[in-house]
Amino acid sequence: MRNKKLMALSLVAVLAFTACGKKETNEPTPTPTVAPTETPAATETPTETPAEPGTDGSGEELGATELTSNETLDKIHEEVKAAYGDNYLPNMPFTVENLDEMFGIKADWYDAAIAEGPMMSAHVDKLIGIHVTEGNLENVQNALNEYQKKIATDIQYPMNLPKVQASVVETAGDYVFFVMLGTIDEMKYTEDSDMIKAFGEQNQIAVDIIKKNIEAK
């Protein structure tokens, strides 16, 4: 009798344990909560706007007032370029500010001008033509003569010295020109004096064109 009671109690305990196990396994497993991650806002890459001509990128005007030419200067300019062809190296126009700062020629000394120099610092070729206003002929002559002396002493590339020494300041009527143009076969010459003479002959090509056009007026 006692054994039957023990067996009955054991059976009840087993059934109770099984019921608890089923209850636990039937409960839904909670889904883990994942904290939302913030997507960083897209950073816009700044784009650079090219600086406008005549500014330094800050909007400040640097001073690039174009020179005003006239019919005579335009004709001389075109004929000189044609005469030298590929050997005409000045391809950068100077401005009103350049004439003042580089050559000492004030804006009220002239009413028309052409002025060009080289893009590369290794070259020195230049053509400058100034139509002088009344009373300023000597001012322009003196400024170009001073410039001629200065570049001969401050020259950056000694190989250009003969060309600089052969440069010409030419006055024709109320026009003043600075001419430093042309090329020579430097290997043909052993003396600087001969090179200076050869460069002088090259400059004479432009001088002849200048005189022809101004004397024809």
TrEMBL record:
Residues 1-21 form the signal peptide. It comes from the Bacteria. Pfam families: DUF4358. Residues 32-53 have a biased composition (Low complexity). Coiled coil: none annotated. Keywords: Signal. InterPro entries: DUF4358. Residues 23-72 are annotated as: Disordered. PROSITE patterns: PROKAR_LIPOPROTEIN. This is DUF4358 domain-containing protein. It comes from Lachnoclostridium phytofermentans (strain ATCC 700394 / DSM 18823 / ISDg). The lineage of its organism: Bacteria, Bacillati, Bacillota, Clostridia, Lachnospirales.
